[in-house]
Amino acid sequence: MTGKLQVHGHCNGLKTTLLFALMWGIIMLIWWATGGQRSTLSIYIVIGLATTFGSYWFSDKLAIASMRAREVSEQEAPALYRIVRELSAKAGKPMPRIYIAPTMSPNAFATGRNERHAAVCCTQGILQMLNEREIRGVLGHELMHVYNHDILTSAIASAMATVITYLGYSLMYFGGSRDDRDGDSGGALGAVGVLLSMILAPIAASLIQMAISRTREYDADEDGSRLTGDPEALASALNKISYGTAANPMPQTAGTQSVAAMMIANPFSAEGLSKLFSTHPPTDQRIARLMQMAQEMRAQSVGMSGYAQTPQVRY
After folding, report:
1. Most buried in the list 86, 180, 296, 302, measured by CB within 10 Å?
2. Which residues bind Zn(2+) (predicted)?
3. 27-64 burial by CB neighbour count: b if 16+ within 10 A, else e?
């Protein structure tokens, strides 16, 4: 195929700018809650600058390290290299590095600040659970996150969520200094600010990860399926991953939580209120959209050649 796949972008430059602005706003709010003193302002400015630069420049390294993944050679993972090389060439884009994470919970994600500094990572669990056709569907989805420039946005949001959460926890130790400057009433106000920040900081972190709109997953499903020409393969993969993560959820650590929003499916059990903060759309809705897309592609194929070229997957 000589033509290159059209990359949409989906307004991620604006999303990135808004996320940076929100990060700075929350950091300054926490600075105010801890006393708002000039002597501590520089500390929070450094935190903000370090987070801004770090989440941009080291996004791929941070995500890979969080999952304890290692880069694999073509000799170690020939099928992965063959699929990624084929799909990258079809899109006319550079081939990303390939990693495998040592967890049996089935999942995959892509990371990196741009196409030339990108990586895709599969867990050992997903490689054992899916067949090669389904792996191809998953990798098409992840590559389109890279080519649509979703990765920088999600990496920034993940880094911000982690920093804001830890800043909220730090208030337990460094909060309330406002009373040194403003007396008893200021001390009471500072204590209220500390309490609110301790409660709201983790919530804000979750909301920031939700700021990576659920539509980005729908977009990557659609674009990735157009890249592979096989939406049913991704639908089958999502179905298996859904059951696999429910049976074998990923351990919730600071590292895995920071990468969760990047993964193709929610790696944790989502029940009750936790569903409200999910960064992923419901799997059954994603599968339904993919199956509808497969029907439309078959109809187009029948119209052009008189028979459907995309085989069905049963699951």
Report:
1. 86
2. 141, 145, 217
3. bebbbbbbbbeeeeeeebeebbeebbebbbebbbebbb
Q: Residue 229 CA to chain centroid, in angstroms?
A: 24
Active site residue 142: yes
Report whether 82 contacts 174 (CB < 8 A).
no
70-112 pLDDT, tens digit per residue, is 999 999 999 999 999 999 999 999 999 999 999 999 999 998 8
Helix (H, G, I), strand (E, B) or coil at 45: helix
In a domain, 154, yes or no: yes
Closest CA to 237 of 100, 122, 76, 67: 122
pLDDT digits (tens, 9 = 90+) for 227-275: 999 999 999 999 999 999 989 989 888 788 878 888 999 888 655 445 5
CA dist 155 and 21 (Å) reads 15
313: number of Cβ within 10 Å: 20
Could you read off the pLDDT of 170-227 as tens digits, one per residue? 665 655 554 444 544 445 545 555 565 566 666 766 666 666 667 788 889 999 999 9
User: What's the confidence (pLDDT) of residue 245?
Assistant: 92
C-alpha to C-alpha distance for 45 and 47, rounded to whole angstroms: 5
112 found inside a domain: yes
Looking up tokens 């460094």, which residue turns up?
174
- Rounded to the nearest 5°, which phi and psi values hold at 56? -80, -55
Give the residue numbers spanning the domain of 31. Answer: 12-301
If one counts the domains in the chain, the total is 1
Among candidate residues 142, 232, 271, 296, the one labeled active-site is 142
309, part of any domain: no
Alpha-carbon span 209 to 37, nearest angstrom: 30
